């Protein structure tokens, strides 16, 4: 980064909050998808929204590309820095500015950790519903960028379903507000909040977020069902949904994921090919009636063992095993890729059987952990990066899984976003005309394309992990480069 840019940054920040040395930049060179890495020109650490606004305006004036970053938990390269560009670190904007238990809202800064909202609301009998597996460290700003979900999104929806208002600075430095503090007006006119959420930082930076809070459920019933066949566990999900039940969460883990969770947190899971976690929640009479119905479905689905949490401690233990699964797989393999695709619930069992066949063809282990209720698959592909060609092989398998999702009528992503990893897969989901419209909208808001440049859309500079040869989606006939 040249001296003129540094001097300009010094008009906004003291020297200790402008990071430029190699050792200072190293933690920012990648996000949780560590196979991609790029060194930024500098990192700045704002303490308030005025500094963010001034920084974005400076970037617009100097044509300096920037990336906003929270805790860096993105699994798609979404917060990967731009070479010689600027990273705007938001972690110190971590205040819950207001929590109104009567209105059931919280007004927060983008660097607030997801779980901290629920902890602050707990004394009032409230909580914040979206619960990504990384909720103890991921920030609301990042949740906004990628429209994060979590285990309970089946019943309560994604981040976009819980944001009432946004104050943002757009990529050209303009500051504007969307929405407000109530549900009044929702559904009237363009859904600008819905447009901003999930835009992966291509429009600008959220400065202040108003989220709605939910009453804590009166009763939980958490059921753990064990199966000797992964396909049967997937079919059980379809049976539950077809019955008319709407659980708070339905999650599946296969044998490899179970093994990892046991090694990591000793969750006490049974020895099985697959586990299905179903959680009912709400008012006590309703939950108890649904629990009786669920028991019959689980018995009919072929589970060989069923456990019901008898205390909050047992419930927490069940969920601790599930939420630690991603990181726990690191105990089984030196390297792994976390994939993120969606299939229709009715074809979940079919998808799992196909993934099992694919992993055998490639000779790679795959641990399956996913939000079964909405068909959001998270296959973790294990490999040893020290072996020549191992990463390429794992990436090819990941591409085949995405091709499978599309072929079954699903999507290339559920909640991890496109980022760098999946940008060349976009033609599998959208026509050239649709992609052109998306890009035109982006340029209308960010004409210089300085906000998170190079993400989401196909083409441009090749990512650090570009594969050689025919893309797996081309092999499947899903996309064509002609």
Q: Briefly, what is this?
A:
Helix 8 packs antiparallel against helix 13 (348-362) and helix 13 runs antiparallel to helix 14.
Overview of the molecule:
With 482 residues, the chain is of the alpha+beta class. The chain is built from 16 helices and 20 strands. It folds into three domains: 3-89, Uridine Diphospho-n-acetylenolpyruvylglucosamine Reductase, domain 2, CATH 3.30.43; 96-215, Uridine Diphospho-n-acetylenolpyruvylglucosamine Reductase, domain 3 (2-Layer Sandwich); 217-423, FAD-linked oxidases, C-terminal domain (Vanillyl-alcohol Oxidase, Chain A, domain 3), CATH 3.40.462.10. Strands 15-12-14-13-18-20-16 form a seven-stranded antiparallel beta sheet, sandwiched between helices. A hairpin with a 4-residue loop joins strand 5 and strand 6 (105-108). Helix 8 (230-242) packs antiparallel against helix 13. It is globular.
How would you summarize the topology of this molecule?
Elements: H1 3-10, E1 18-19, H2 22-25, E2 42-44, H3 49-62, E3 66-69, E4 86-89, E5 96-100, E6 105-108, H4 114-121, E7 126-127, H5 140-146, H6 153-156, E8 163-170, E9 175-179, H7 192-196, E10 204-212, E11 214-215, E12 219-227, H8 230-242, E13 249-254, H9 255-265, E14 274-282, H10 284-300, E15 305-308, H11 312-323, H12 325-328, E16 335-338, E17 341-342, H13 348-362, E18 366-371, E19 376-377, E20 379-383, H14 390-407, H15 432-445, H16 472-475
Parallel strand pairs: 2-4, 3-4
Antiparallel strand pairs: 1-2, 5-6, 6-10, 7-11, 8-9, 8-10, 12-14, 12-15, 13-14, 13-18, 16-20, 17-19, 18-20
């Amino acid at each position: 980064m040249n001296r003129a840019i540094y001097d300009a940054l010094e008009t906004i920040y003291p020297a200790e909050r402008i990071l430029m040395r190699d050792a200072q930049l190293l933690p920012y060179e990648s996000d949780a998808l560590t196979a991609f890495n790029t060194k930024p020109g500098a990192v700045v650490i704002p303490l308030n929204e005025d500094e963010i606004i001034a920084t974005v305006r400076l970037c617009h004036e100097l044509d300096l590309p920037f990336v906003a970053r929270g805790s860096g938990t993105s699994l798609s390269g979404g917060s990967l820095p731009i070479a010689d560009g600027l990273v705007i670190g938001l972690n110190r904007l971590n205040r819950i500015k207001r929590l109104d238990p009567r209105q059931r809202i919280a007004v927060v800064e983008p660097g607030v950790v997801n779980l901290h909202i629920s902890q602050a609301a707990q004394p009032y009998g409230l909580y914040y519903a979206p619960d990504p597996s990384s909720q103890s460290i991921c920030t609301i700003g990042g949740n906004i960028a990628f429209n994060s979900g979590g285990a309970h999104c089946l019943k309560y929806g994604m981040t976009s379903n819980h944001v009432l208002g946004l104050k943002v600075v757009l990529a050209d430095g303009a500051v504007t507000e969307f929405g407000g503090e109530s549900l009044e007006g929702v559904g009237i006119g363009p859904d600008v909040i819905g447009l901003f959420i999930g835009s992966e930082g291509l429009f600008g930076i959220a400065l202040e977020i108003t989220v709605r809070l939910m009453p804590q459920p009166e009763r939980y019933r958490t059921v753990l069902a064990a199966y000797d066949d992964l396909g049967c566990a997937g079919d059980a999900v379809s049976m539950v949904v077809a019955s008319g039940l709407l659980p708070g969460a339905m999650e599946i883990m296969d044998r490899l994921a179970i093994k990892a969770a046991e090694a990591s947190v000793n969750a006490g899971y049974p020895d099985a090919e697959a586990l299905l976690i179903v959680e009912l929640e709400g008012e006590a009479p309703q939950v108890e009636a649904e629990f009786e119905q669920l028991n019959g479905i689980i018995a009919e689905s072929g589970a060989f063992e069923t456990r019901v949490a008898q205390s909050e401690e047992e419930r927490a233990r069940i969920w601790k095993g599930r939420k630690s699964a991603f990181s726990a797989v690191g105990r089984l393999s030196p390297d792994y890729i976390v994939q993120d695709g969606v299939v229709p619930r009715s074809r979940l069992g079919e998808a799992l059987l196909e993934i099992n066949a694919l992993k055998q063809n490639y000779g790679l282990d795959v641990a399956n952990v996913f939000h079964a209720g909405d068909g959001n698959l998270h296959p973790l592909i294990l490999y040893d990066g020290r072996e020549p060609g191992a990463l390429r092989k794992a990436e090819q398998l990941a591409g085949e899984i995405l091709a499978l999702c599309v072929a079954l009528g699903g999507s290339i992503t559920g909640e991890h976003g496109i980022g760098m990893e999946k940008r060349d897969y976009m033609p599998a989901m959208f026509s050239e005309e649709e992609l052109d419209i998306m890009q035109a909208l982006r340029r209308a808001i960010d004409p210089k394309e300085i906000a998170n440049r190079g993400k989401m859309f196909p083409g441009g500079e090749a990512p650090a992990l570009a594969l050689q040869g025919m893309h797996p989606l081309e092999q499947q006939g899903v996309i064509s480069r002609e």
